[in-house]
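Data card: per-record layout.
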Amino acid sequence: MTERDDSTDNEADAAPSAAVQWTAGLAIAAALIVGIVLYYRTRVCDEQLTRAGKAVCVNRNLRATDPPILAVGLIVLVALSAFFSEISGFGVTLKRQVRRANKRADAAISKATDAENAAQSARQTSRIAEEVTLIAASERREQGLAGAPAIQSNIDGLASQYNQIRRQEQAGADRTSRMTTVVSKMISALSGVPADDIDLETYIADKSNDGRRLAAYAYMYANPDPRWAPGLAGAILAEPTPFGQYWAIRAIRRSIALDPSALDLNSRRQLEDLLSRLGPNTDRAYELRQALSEAQKKERQS
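The structure for this 302-residue chain is written out next.
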């Protein structure tokens, strides 16, 4: 499961410098002066036919559609783009806003692609880690279960390690991989351990210790029990960390698999509301969607 920073960096186009604006202003002034001079000083000869069929020259001033005036207008149009984000005229449109929107759209697509790739990578990492923990748990059971004090000491050490990783490392794939390793060790250490050997209620209620709450989710994942479903639903809604919430969702999914009716209607509605607020491509949304779907499917079958 990958924790990602959802903040968006808005790309802003750099405004034209003062020098560019001064140059553009001088260009506009010069073009207007040239246009005025051309209008009053230039005469255009239009040939017209008399009734007798003779071609005569009729002088006139410049019109807006004459090439010199069009050239002046185009220069003014281009120069005005230094002052306005969108200028239209003579069939030419300069849209800085469109370019900015295109850049933002490209950035959004790139981020969405990165998020989806990261989610797929995280799920794969999680599956591999769990396969390793199952082997480790089997070996531990063959060697005999440790006593409750030793187990709790081991779990507290792993919780501290997890908290240290969260505090000291920057969010990203590397940190997620290390945290996944820690939770995998927790699952291995807690697999098959009697519920009396670990104080789940204290761990899951510890708001100041993210690692202890994660350990509680790891225990309920390793030892699923339908009776824990309502409490897990409340923990999912209250969990402040995406990584911890992800593992709480995975734990409730395993409990639901044993007994879909263990999740009461109110809890289901609250989880459905949470699902509507999660990003659709996140690992949490995927797991929660699967859990709710499996619960409904199994209820219909029963």
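Known properties of this structure: Residues 113-301 form one domain. The beta strands are 44-49, 55-60, 86-89, 92-95.

See the next section for split statistics.
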